[in-house]
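Figure S7 source data.
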Amino acid sequence: MANNDTLKKTLTVTLVLSLVCSVLVSAAAVFLKDRQDQNKLLDVQGNILSIAGLVDDPRAMSRDEILAKFKEVKPMLVDLKSGDFYSGGDLNVSTYNDRAAAKDPKLSAALPAAADTALIKRREDVAKIYMVEENGKLKTLILPIRGYGLWSTLYGYMALDADLDTVVGLGFYEHGETPGLGGEVDNPRWKETWKGKEIFNDNGKLDIAVIKGSVVPGPNAKHQVDGLSGATLTTRGVNNLVNFWLGSNGFGPFLANLKKGEA
Ligand SMILES: Cc1cc2nc3c(=O)[nH]c(=O)nc-3n(C[C@H](O)[C@H](O)[C@H](O)COP(=O)(O)O)c2cc1C
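Tokens for the predicted flavin mononucleotide complex:
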């Protein structure tokens, strides 16, 4: 009987086995890429619905249910520099990818360090927002937000009521903060504390802060959100990114135009 226990045969079997396995893993990664991308998109859509208060728990919904409900939100493009709805250019709202645009030198601009309070390096020229309408009128405005926490860029959305002042919801669909610390941005109880907060003060100035510690009841409480305990750096990042995106380099000009009815 042939001796199978030789160095040559052992190495050959090991080599063939690793080759077969690596081909299988690579093939699976390639074949599943489309499905993974679709699932990622579905996850973002579920998050948008939840942040806008249109559904309670998107994880309890089927793919078809999410897709059907998502028809209630209307995507729109906004020219961030002028603060107007984007029109007349080559970009198509249904294919436009704002995250890809933010990396494309033709579709974005580098932010000077002093302006880059959200630590995003580049800002896309055109943002993709979502609107929920009721009887032809704006009911909820859903704005993309992103910025650096402690370990990662947090990607999410903030939903505002038709008064363009009251927060309907805020949440992040992607981040790499530590579970139990910065990862508590996903805690439903913390997300709940955003609801009803007001982003502008009585003089129309942007006035919203995620503070260190707990909000003390009083006149400023409606402009403040509790910080995450043990996660001061993520908290600071969230405060900075919210203020960036609602400010003059983010959606500030658009919100001002929309209020005047001139967007
Ligand atoms: C392994 C590890 C992971 C951490 N993850 C986070 C995090 O995701 N977000 C954060 O703000 N702080 C995180 N921290 C804590 C920070 O280093 C820092 O101590 C904290 O932000 C200070 O917050 P405090 O002033 O509320 O205690 C982590 C610390 C360790 C050791």
